Amino acid sequence: MILADAFEHVTDSRTWQLFEGVSIHLPWPFSKFVILELIAAGLVLAIFIPLANRVQSGEPVRGWFWNSVESLLTFIRDRVAKPNIGEHDADKFVPFLWTVFLFILFCNLLGMLPFMGSPTASFAVTAVLAVFAFVVIHGSAIAKMGFGHYAKAHVPHIDAPFGMGPLIAYMIVGIEVFGHFIKAFVLAVRLFANMFAGHMVLAFILYFIVMAKNAHWLLLGVVSIGSAAMVVALSLLELFVAFLQAYIFTYLTALFLGTALHPHH
């Protein structure tokens, strides 16, 4: 029963459990993670639109919050997009990378709030994000170079004896194409595994208190205080992981995008 309850915290459902015996039944097509993703998307818009309006009007950004957001987005542009995609092409994809970073970040952070959850702890969610990244990466490369030229860029010229050159070349093509799908799979699994594992660890530590509820009051107190202290410490680590995993997903997307746009570099 404890294991099932712990998994409920990191799995999607149309029943949103708030308290013991108190839940919300969501109508189709909504589910807990769908609602949380809509909240994350709304937060992205709430940041992007006012910030874009300020930049467009020439009004200087004021306040610690807006300066922090601008610094974060500038970091993604200057330290992630431009080094990996190139100065010429980076600005075209910076809005996409900003959106990916902020959306994943808010999905990660929502799991740290009471009664919420992290949609990124679901492989279905991270797989869809990886599919979008895959389409943008290779769709942009095809749009830039044309399908024929992009496909030709995957075929190396191999000088080998006994006429083995073409055979080796097409084997390399197969490995390259398979590698593209592996990269997308890695994007999905890396984000999912880190967020899922973190929330599961926090859930099980808190369940130590539930397991000790019928024990002597002294033991219950020790377990409760110890579990609460560990959860606080690990929550600070989870806060760092939330930013780190959003950064890694965005960085790898930019890296794969740059490789696709400039296959000979």
How does this model look, in words?
A hairpin with a 2-residue loop joins strand 1 (15-19) and strand 2 (22-25). Helix 2 crosses helix 4 (87-110), helix 3 (64-85) crosses helix 8 (217-261) and helix 4 runs antiparallel to helix 8 (217-261). The chain has eight helices and two strands; from the N terminus they run αββααααααα. The protein is mainly alpha-helical. The model is unreliable at 1-6 (pLDDT under 50). The chain has one domain. The chain has helices spanning 2-8, 32-57, 64-85, 87-110, 123-145, 147-152, 165-211, 217-261; strands at 15-19, 22-25. The chain has a two-stranded antiparallel ribbon with strand order 1-2.
Number of strand elements: 2
How many whole angstroms does the radius of gyration measure? 23 Å
Q: Give the CA-based shape.
A: globular
Count of helices? Answer: 8
Beta-strand percent range: under 5%
Report the structural category.
mainly alpha
Order of strands, widest sheet: 1-2
